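Lab meeting, action items carried over

1. Structure of the two-component assembly. Owner: GW. Status: complete.
Input record:
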Amino acid sequence: MSSAPQPAIEFRDVSYRANGGGLLLNAISLRFESGTTTALLGRSGAGKTTLLRLVNQLLPTSGGKLLVEGKDAHAWNPVFLRRRIGYAIQETGLFPHFTIARNIALALELEGKSAGERRARAFEMLKMVGLNAEYADRYPHELSGGQRQRAGVARALVASPSILLLDEPFGALDPLTRRELQEMTRSLLRQLRTTTLLVTHDLEEALYIADRIILLDAGRVVADQPSAQFRGSPQPEVREYVRAFRHAEGPQ
Amino acid sequence: MSGFGGFFVQHASEIGRLTLEHLWLTVSALLLACAIAVPLGILMTRYAVLAQPSLFVANTLQTIPSLALFGFLLPLPWLGERAARIAIAALTAYAVLPILRNTYAGIRGIDPALQEVANALGMTGMQRLRKIELPLSSSVILAGIRTATVTCVGIATIAAAVGAGGLGEFIFRGVASVDNRLVLAGAVPAALLALGADFSLGLLERALRVPGRR
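Predicted assembly:
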C-alpha cells in the first residue's frame, strides 16, 4: 500500500443484495478521505441511501470489504460503530416524546454522560445550528420543519462524530429554508472537518456543499469527480444528469 | 321500584363484599395477563416467527364461550378451595388477547424511520425498547388493557358458577330464584365497575398519548 493516510471509509468491491432480491450495489470501490465532504447523486433507486446505510451497518454488506476507520465494518460492534457516526435523515426522525434538548443530546445520554453535561452541550449545539435557546424544552411538533431539521443536524453532530451521514436532510423543506440550511451545513462542515457523505437529488446542493460528487446509477458508480469539475465533465452520464437537472429547474 | 332501593340498602354490606371479590378476581387476572402479554408482545416484534402462533393461541382462547370454559372447570376435583385461583386463570386467558395484540401492533406501528434512527444512534435493543418503543406505544398498549378490563369485569360474573365469588353470585342466585332484584344487585355494580374502569383508563390513555406521533 502507498503511504497515503488511512481513509475514513473505504469500499473495496462492495456489493449489497437485498434479501433474496437483486443487486442494489454492485462492485463499489471508493475511498473517502478524512475530513472531506462527498455528495452521492443519482436517481431514486440508484443505491445512494443503501450505500450510506452500509457505512453504519444499518445494512450488512453482501460481498467485498468495507473498512470504517481502517476496521472491517462487520468486525465493529454495531452499537459502538454507530455511536461514532452522526446520522440525519429527511423529516429528521426526531423522537416526538422527547424535548428538543433531549433529542439533541441523546447520543450523550446513551454514553451515560451526566444531565448537566448533556444540557450544556445541547445549548451549545442549539447555538451552533442557529436555534434559539428557548426551543430546548419544546417538543418537535411545536417547531417548524426547518427548525426541526436544524435540531436533526445538531443531534447528528452532538457527540463530535468523526463521520457524518446525511440522507437528503433538506428534502422536505421549502426553497428558502433549504438554502439557509445548506449554508449552515456548509459552514459547519468547513469548520468541523467531519468526513461527510451527503445523499441528495439536488445537483445545486451537491455542488454547493460537497468537495466531491459521486454519481450512482443502478447500483454502480458512473462518475466520481471533484465538484468544481462536475458540471463541465464530458462524461455522457454526467452530462445527461446535469441536463436533466437544468431542465427540471426550468430556464434561468 | 321502591323495593329495589330498600333491597340495595339491606344488602349493602354483601354487595360491598362481592364487589371487592369481583375486583380482586379482575385485577389479579389483568396483572397476570399483562405480565404474560406485554413481554410476549415485545418478543413477537423481535422474533417474527412467534407472532402468528401466539396470536392464534390467544385468539382461540378468546373464542371459547366463557360459560363453557367455566363449565369445563366445574368437574375439577380440587376446585372448592382454589375456585378463585382457577377463575383468575380463566379470566387471564381472556385478557391476554387484547393486550398482546395491542402491544404487538403498538410497537410495530411506530414509524420505521424512528426505529432506524434509534438504531443509527447506537441504541442497544434494550435502550430502544425502554426509551423509544414502550413510551411511544404506551397509549396503544393501555387501550388493550382497557378492552381487557371491561371484558374481564363482565366475564368475572360467570366465575360465580365455579364458586369463585364476585358479583355473579347475586346474578346466579337471582336467576335461580327468579328474583330480579338479586340479578340487578349483581348486574348494576358490575356495569358500574366496567364503566368506571373504562372511563378512568380512557383518561390515562389520553394522558399517555404522544402528540405528533406519526
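2. GW to write a short summary for the group page. Key points so far: Chain A touches chain B through 24 residues (CB under 8 Å). The radius of gyration of chain A is 18 Å.
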